[in-house]
Amino acid sequence: MKLSRWFDKEEFACKCGCDEDFEIDPNLITVLDQVREYVGNPMTITSGYRCKKHNDSLGSTDKSQHRKGTAADVVFAYHGAQQVADIAEGIMGKKGGLGRYKDFTHIDVRKGIARWGKN
Fold it and tell me: Percentage helix, strand, coil, to 5, in the chain?
């Protein structure tokens, strides 16, 4: 199912293969579309929605934005995670969550603001 010009719902499915039904927040799609458009090449969703079992296996909490369908971990083939985080920060401003990791960028649309990782 198409969520936008750039994304299909299946890209956000839990990576454990459980086929659990889920919803993705439209605000997340809007932000990811804007990042994708700015960068100019495809992104890979390495983690979107997570079922409880998969989320627990990763050591994450039940409060994880991935459990709510409001988060995605993303990578681009030709842009580093820090560069993508900087782009996302410019688009998101002072709202949502942004995690800077060595190999991927976490983007979420939580209420409020959260930032972590190398800045």
Answer: 35, 25, 45
**Which strands sit side by side in the sheet containing 105-108, from one edge to the other?**
43-47, 71-76, 105-108, 96-100, 113-117
| pTM summary value | 0.94
CB 47 within 8 A of CB 21: no
Rg of the chain, C-alpha, whole Å: 13
Percent of the chain with pLDDT over 90: 92
Q: What structural domains and CATH numbers belong to the chain?
A: 9-117 (3.30.1380.10)
- Residue 105: left (phi > 0), alpha (psi -120 to 50), or beta? beta
